[in-house]
Amino acid sequence: MLQTALKGTLAHKARLALTSVAILLGVAFVSGTFVFTDTIQARFDSLFADVYAGVDASVRAEGPEFGGDVTTAPAALPQSLVSDVAAVDGVAAAEGYVQAFGQVIADGEPVGGQGPPTYVYSWIQDPQLNPFRIGAGDGRAPQADGEVVVDVATAQAASLALGDRIDLQFATGAESFELVGIASFGDANNLAGATISVITLDDAQRILDLPGQVTFIDVAGAEGTDLAALANRIATVLPAGAEVVTGDQLMAEAIDGFTEGLGFLSTALLAFAAVAVLVGAFIIYNTFRIIVAQRTRELALLRAVGASARQVVGVVLAEALAVALLASAAGVVAGVGFAQLLKAGMDAVGFGPPDGPLTIEPRTVVVGMLVGVVVTLLSALVPALHASRVPPVAAMQQTGVTHSEKPVRSWLRVAVLAAGLVVAMAGLAVEQGALIALGCVLTVVGVLALAPLLARPIAAVVGRPIPGAVGQLARENAGRDPRRTSATASALTVGIALVVFTAIFASSTKDSIAASVEDAFPADLMVSSSNFYLGVSPQAQAAVVATPEVEVTSPLRVGAVRVDGVETAMTSFESSTIDRVYDAGSTIPLSQAGDGLLVHQALVDDGRVAVGDVLTVESPTGASAELTVVGSYRDGTLDSYAVDQSVWTRLGGTDDAATVLVGLREGVDLETGKAAVESALSSFPSLTVATVSEQIASVVAQVDAFLVLFTALLGMALLIAVLGIANTLALSIVERTREIGLLRAVGMSRRQVRWMITSEAVVTALFGAVVGSVLGLGLGWVVVTALSADGLTAFSLPVAQIATWLVVSALAGVVAAGLPARKAARLDVLRAIAYE
Questions:
Q1: Taking the CB of residue 125, how many other CB atoms lie within 10 A of it?
Q2: Which residues, at least 6 apart from 391, have a Cβ–Cβ distance to it below 8 Å?
Q3: Closest Cα to residue 379, out of 302, 317, 303?
Q4: 3-state class of 623 per DSSP?
Q5: What is the DSSP code string of 409-440?
Q6: 369-373, 492-496, 693-697 — which one is most confidently predicted on average?
Q7: pLDDT tens string 312-364
Q8: Which of 250-264, 437-451, 528-542, 659-673 tops mean pLDDT?
Q9: Does an H or E element contain 220, and which?
Q10: Which of the 8 DSSP states describes residue 596?
């Protein structure tokens, strides 16, 4: 039977070619994701090992109990501690340095800041402890005030050359420096995507107001010293608030932090890979179902000569296995190319990993092969079982098997859809995300199950614009076997549903944000930072306050807190000014909060908090307070909890603001006021001044960027769906050979045959797109409604985008029909008529 299966595969290799491509693309997405993330992980593991190779221990201020991350600047230590550490037995070298946040400004434009950190270091003199390497011809270390070194990637991104003048912006403002060196990290041009600048220790201490202080003291141990014991000895000379960690611990912390972020990327890519694999499964199932139906007589002959039902199943699955093994192996290889494409995309947006060879783990090959083989076998199993259940004699008396929809099955499908809708609505009523998700899944299954019942009427409607007898034939062909049409379109249905859902979610998000900002901000201007790591410092706030055109300013500050033991975010406001520039939709004016706590209305609606509750609020500094809930607010600009600045100060919150709301004096127009504030902030190039409409436009642009990214990743699934239509058309031409020959014999031209097949593909694609659009619309409405309490208050239907996807689907049908239509038109009329 194995030999029979192999011969069957070779005999139908053309029919299985596009199925193989679907498997290949799905596996390539999966294996490419693993290759990409494994490569990044390996390169950064190596990079961090190089960076910390000479550091055996490091002294630093104890971090906060919680809330500490890369956006938190390290605390300072007395520089005199360096000599105490150097005197510890076993210490060969010790040197203190400063690490803080700052931003490179080249030609007036900030470099980096929206993704990886923007660090400023002081130069470390000891070469063993210094992670920076300046190659021949790349300049020298900073030796005097006003000199700076930047990393290679930053120099390349900003087109910098030795001798150029650049600005470095700090919290206190910007200062000018001369570029005297360009440094790498071992062989790497960059440190995990961060923008790095290095200045002298004297400059760092002066500019950052750290006289006689450093933020880290790195230590190299004497040869043969037990490093754990060395760390313990160093700990004995440290003052309260300081701690020592080994170099291995430092490296592990850096790698763990990077791995956490990489895990999110890997999960997101694998989610899109799962969609591609799911869409491919529809195509595989449909292909084998059609092939099995076309080979009914062949399989029946096997039964007649003694093959059992189990052996027939084995033949079909063996053919599927052969295809899966070949296609999956090719997919694993193609995944390497996909990983290179991902890297190129990351490089293009400035997040590229260090250069180096690709990392291909055995796990990548095993998982890729398993995904391809298992999905293919499961998809082919149902057609194989159907083939084994056809009686040999009955099968030999027909050339195919037709499929009728049984009433019981129809009712069962309706029941699944109804159950999905009921569960989703129940989830919305009780605000349970798990129920909503289950309802959405059941709804999708129900719609796909009901699709055969919808194929004939929808095909008749969407195909109506196709004129003439050829158009009528195309509509009738699409509706003649509704099960095949729906199965062919199912992959496209899923793809379009996800695209439409994403478009609705993005459009609703944009409209909700726009409405929220317009309603909440009577402020004329908003000052914020384009650098995620540099807020609006007190110095910048003072510059805005001093601007003659400004009537009132009100800063909003954000920080991490624990509320009754749960880590969350809190916003603070200035009670004396906030009501003049901001309306949070609160139950009491924010200015009347006093020493109380305000909470987002979603927490009240969920029953987690009530007005009058007393909650324990803790800050990372260790300060805590018992605060009474005095009101709630609906606007999403504030975080889950909000307090007056006086409470914020007691908790040790930062003075840097996330946003400063600005009200202009009466009679000052927006353009004049904005120009005046920008002029006042000229020493802070990373700060942006925007009107409310400009702020909305900025947020909308960010959402649109995410929409483009998501749609691009879903494009793989749509490509596979188009291949599915082409595959089904190619297979249908085989069984319709005689029919096409008869049409040619009675006068249909080659051109009309091509147009008929193309029209049929367009009808099928539009059927899938219409069902997918309706499904995506329903899912979008459910999710937007479910998130209404979290700020997604507007449901927006992007009609133009949905119409565009319908047009794209029709064009995809034209593309998919290209080769099958040409093949049908070239059939020899006499041979086609004689074909059985």
A1: 12
A2: 300
A3: 317
A4: coil
A5: HHHHHHHHHHHHHHHHHHHHHHT-HHHHHHHH
A6: 369-373
A7: 788 788 888 888 898 899 999 998 888 888 777 766 655 566 666 788 889 99
A8: 659-673
A9: strand 216-221
A10: -
Q: Which residues are within 8 A (CB) of 185 and not within 5 positions of it... i.e. 6 or more apart?
A: 47, 50, 51, 131, 132, 133, 151, 191
Digit-coded pLDDT (tens) for 30-77: 898 888 888 888 877 877 777 788 899 999 988 665 555 555 567 789
The confidence score (pLDDT) of residue 181 equals 95
Whether 166 contacts 532, CB under 8 Å: no
Task: Look up tokens 């239907």; give the residue.
Answer: 797
d(CA 565, CA 568): 9
Q: How many CB atoms lie within 10 A of CB 62?
A: 12
End-to-end CA distance of the chain: 26
In the chain, the amino acid numbered 302 is L
What are the tokens at 137?
A: 């011809």
What HEC string does 658-708 produce? CEEEEEECCCCCHHHHHHHHHHHCCCCCCEEEEEHHHHHHHHHHHHHHHHH
Strands 641-644 and 597-600: antiparallel
Q: Note the pLDDT tens digit of each residue in 711-751.
A: 887 777 788 788 778 877 777 776 677 777 887 887 888 88
Tokens 């611990």, located at residue: 249
Average pLDDT on 151-170 reads 91
CA–CA separation, 95 and 90 (whole Å) = 15
Tokens representing 215?
């933020």
Q: Are the CB atoms for 575 and 644 separated by under 8 Å?
A: yes
Q: Residue 617: its pLDDT value, please?
A: 93
- For 100-119, the pLDDT digits (tens) are 888 899 888 888 766 677 88
Cβ(817)–Cβ(722) under 8 Å? no
Quick check: 512 and 794 in contact, CB under 8 A? yes
Provide the whole-model pTM: 0.74
Structure-token pair, residue 745: 């014999």
Q: Which residues contact 582 (CB under 8 A, 6 or more apart)?
A: 520, 521, 522, 523, 554, 573, 590, 637, 661
Spatial separation of the C-alpha atoms in residues 682 and 539, rounded to whole Å: 12
CB 231 within 8 A of CB 108: no
pLDDT at residue 739, as a whole number: 78
Lookup: tokens for 381: 């199993």
How far apart, in Å, are the Cα atoms of 224 and each of 90, 92, 246, 248, 499? 9, 11, 15, 16, 61
Joined together, the tokens standing for residue 750 give 């080659």
C-alpha 170/C-alpha 596 separation (Å) is: 34
What is the C-alpha separation between 670 and 667, in angstroms, rounded? 10
Q: In percent, how much of the chain has pLDDT > 70?
A: 88
